[in-house]
Target: Initiator Replication protein
Amino acid sequence: MIFKMKQKIENEVSCLNLSEPMNITLRYPAVGKITHEQVRWSNAIVNSPVVYGLIERRTLYFITGEVKHKYTEKNLGVPDSWKDLYFHLTDDDLGLIGGQKNVPRTYAALRELAKKLVPVTFKNEQGQLIRGEVHWVDSFFYNTETGLYDVRVSPEIMPYLIDISKSFTTFDLGTAMLLRSKYSQKMYELCSQFCGDFRFLDSGEKAQGHVYKKRVVPIQMEDFRRIFNLDEVRDPRTKKVITPAIYTSFKEVRQFILEATQMELFELYAAKHSNLWFDFQEGPRKGRGGKVSSIFIYIYTKEFPKEGIEKPWQKGDEPLSPFEEYAEPVEHTDIHQRMRENVWYNAGKEAQEIALQTLLGHYLHEDEVFYYMKQIRLKAGRSYDSYMQVIQVIQDKEKQPKFKSGTDTYRRNSIIKYALRVNLKEFGWSLEPMNATTKNKKKPIEQDLFSYR
Model:
């Protein structure tokens, strides 16, 4: 998991289908042709830190395509025999990965793959969380006679590539092979993970009356730095520094990672070689002049494009907003039917009066309760359902998220200004607030008849 807060994918839908399958010439550094096709990685790989260089990761993309053709398309699971895990590559394949003029460099990257481990986490059959590191490639051979490269894919990595039914990311192999830095590769993978029908759910924001827009991803900077491998990494036992920290300021992160990868993905999108790109926005700072603690990533695709002009956000443009207004789903019944279904409806007029006075006492001052009860009794003399009507509008107000999370002052004002003054108009009448000069702040003490709810 990338985030500390709860997240949910409402519907795992691939968003990486280009208009039609086609061959494209790789711009840099490879030459040749590669087909746009979709491949899958487990999110355990997508969310793991950047430990591979540009050519190394391109090699992994290439191997993923080979795994798809050899196993996934044939509905085969992880092979039992280690001999079936070998893949045979040629100089042409290496030229496709790193460029025909850079085959020796790609060869060196291929050899390095066998030395590197990728961190993974999973739960075993007992539901226990397991953390570990696995190889992508665990052996490598070069045939001096045939010129073939024999690469054996680690059996430990195969479950993260095939037979994946949940918690996976689908991305376009052709687009991935075009990317020109290890950071744009990682950003493309992350955007692919959240570019479908995804909405980040945060109960705290929902309680404030708004939710995150779809395809807006809030990321804590500590998580971002971990994924992009920017912090210092030490051996847990020897404490020896494995990799030093880089881009320690947010200014550097913005310039060398966020802006650079944004422009690269946008250019590919504009050239119709990618189906996604992104905007980014700093999250709130902690105090004046404080550090940036989070960022928002706004993901755009051909199916869900950016509104207005499709270009990276610049200062002076309309401000980005990660939220959309949220309204509690409207009940299918109207207020009159809800009132008739209320448990107090058949309780009798005297019980309703006592219940209403207690309910008002939860939120209003003592003199306000006296004032409103006097007005409601006058109305009750002319309308049998007056007590129930007031109870109903207050109970409807209590169900609203902003009311539930609001302060005592907010709830009091909400009852006076909206429930009694506005919402009661659905029954054809309303109650004006009492004169401010006569108010007394003392609260009543009443038996809580609503504690059962």
User: Anything to note?
Assistant: Residues 1-13, 19-32, 441-453 have pLDDT under 50 and may be disordered. Residues 335-438 form one domain.
